[in-house]
Amino acid sequence: DETAVKESLISFYRKLSNGNPGSGWNVNSSPCKDQWEGIICDNKTHSVRRIDLDASNFAGKFDPSILCNVQSLSSSLTSISLNDNSLVGENLAEIANCKQLTRLQIGGNRFSGNLPDSFSRLNNLKRLNLSWNNFSGVLPDLARISGLQELLLQRNQLMGLIPGFDFPNFRQFNVSFNNFTGQIPNGGGRFPVSSFIGNPELCGDPLPTRCRPLALEPNHPNIKSKSLSGDQLLMYSGFFLVGLSLFFLVFFKLCKRKKKTEEKMDSANKVASADDSFYKQTSNTASGEPKTFVNKSDISASSSLIILTSPEVNGLRFEDLLRAPAELLGRGKNGTVYKVVCEQQGMVLAVKRVRDWVISSSDFRVRMKRLDQVRHPNVLSAMAFYYSKQEKLLVYEYQQNGSLFRLLHGTQKSRDFDWSTRLGLAATITNALAFMHQELDQDGIAHGNLKSSNILLNNNMEPCISEYGLITVDTEDKPSISSSRSDSVPINAFKADVYGLGVILLELLTGKLGQNNGMGLAQWVLSVVREEWTVEVFDKNLIREGASEERMVNLLQIAVKCVDRAPDTRPSINQVALMVNTIKEEEERSLVLET
Ligand SMILES: Nc1ncnc2c1ncn2[C@@H]1O[C@H](COP(=O)(O)OP(=O)(O)OP(=O)(O)O)[C@@H](O)[C@H]1O
């Protein structure tokens, strides 16, 4: 039934494209042997495995019934990917007949309405991306799909409770900017706040909004009408009292902090240079308005574009953010970072103000949307973005444990920063970077400025790569900001990240500072290694600790390859990941043997 397969693929394509035939898609050729564009087949059986038609400018309809009701096609099809088109849906419920699907990706389209219950019958599904659409209503019971590893639902209008997913199984999870309500189920706390933000009625770990004890919410759907037992009443009143005292404690702390922040605000403003017209303090006006950091005219400028699907993030409006007291955290060559405390919403944010970024609003939007779609637990995603001609702001969750740079070179060096922690950190950063490179390779979006001050430590002291994709690299030693078009991105951008990673590895091994794009450190290490005094390069603390010299030398060799002057000679990030992970496994094996 190759004819049936061909016919259904062709009519599927016509529906997507509003009647245009796909290039090379015709009944006289074969989808597998003639390699129809967007079709990927099994090499041995010559059956269609994947349909990959992301960003193909489709503005028609996605009608899965055309594919899934043809048995010879649905029995082999494992992946449908139609991200970033302008599609609407038809007969979506029929998707359940494509039982072999492990991947369904239809993010960044114009789908709307309820998600059919039949989605929950896709038992083999591993990755589901429905983000950046207009889906509404409650979720089908997706928690029954036991193998699900990735669920991206952000930027829709979905509502109701989040089902009790098997979170430990998940690699990626994002439900931000919907209308979900109630408590985040157990285990959700392993994902960052940015995975849940933008659902004003959602509460619990990792969000700063605590959930009220159920007993205090008479209309909560989870409350059965039966009356509470004496024990339960005692327990809930206990919760209530603890909650109340916590509230007062936090309230008093916030009041104190506000005072401090205002003091810091003054000094921060002194540091800000004259060109810092955005976050500036205007004096008390005659009308008695409070001190603010920003001129009203800056916000209401008609060219402003605030990219938030919902106008509120946990009750925080962008205007509030811009007016909140800001403390200067640091000024790098690409811009300035402020810590902003939004007390009312209980949120602490880091706002990056990127300097001199020449990028059109549509390129900016496309780039940010793409970056938002690619999530990794060890990469910090921006929670919101702001674009105007003069200003580009990115809002991140503030990471109170600081950066790897501070951990390595700060005044309060941690005594626990031993070899196995450093090796674990190296592996986590490398794996996260490898994931991002793989996912964003087609888009040409590399990190662009990888260094230890852009590796932040989250609440669990796990490293998170921050500021991914804010700049691109023109030449080896001259990073600069440019547009998001993949055709203007030099291939070197990815190799420049490998160089940046190499310098981070050297910093971890030597404990020394990687200044001046790490050139000084790289040259010093190379000269010492050339003289065959290799052991001299390692951090004295590592030697004292008795860390395995063999494994340190192995990691050093990887780092040296990464900082090779010729970009083409540097290994790919996947090769680096393989090598670093091998060293880490050896270390783990040796620890097991020791105990
Ligand atoms: N989300 C965040 N939470 C906490 N600290 C942050 C956050 N983002 C940045 N920082 C810190 O703010 C400081 C300034 O950051 P910034 O990125 O401007 O400087 P940089 O990394 O030295 O230079 P560059 O502009 O080249 O990236 C750094 O110490 C950085 O670690």
Automatic annotation (TrEMBL):
Q: Where in the cell is it found?
A: Membrane
* Annotated ATP binding sites: K352
Q: Where are the transmembrane segments?
A: 233-255
- Which InterPro entries does the record associate with it? Kinase-like_dom_sf, Leu-rich_rpt, LRR_dom_sf, LRR_N_plant-typ, PRK1-6/SRF4-like, Prot_kinase_dom, Protein_kinase_ATP_BS
- Name the GO cellular-component terms: membrane
Q: Which UniProt keywords apply?
A: ATP-binding, Kinase, Leucine-rich repeat, Membrane, Nucleotide-binding, Receptor, Repeat, Signal, Transferase, Transmembrane, Transmembrane helix
Q: What is its main location?
A: membrane
> Which Pfam families does the entry mention?
LRR_8 (PF13855), LRRNT_2 (PF08263), Pkinase (PF00069)
Return one GO MF term: ATP binding
Keyword check for Transferase: yes
Q: Which residues form the Protein kinase domain?
A: 323-583
* Protein name per the record: Leucine-rich repeat receptor-like protein kinase
Species: Actinidia chinensis var. chinensis (Chinese soft-hair kiwi)
The uppermost taxa in this organism's lineage are: Eukaryota, Viridiplantae, Streptophyta, Embryophyta, Tracheophyta
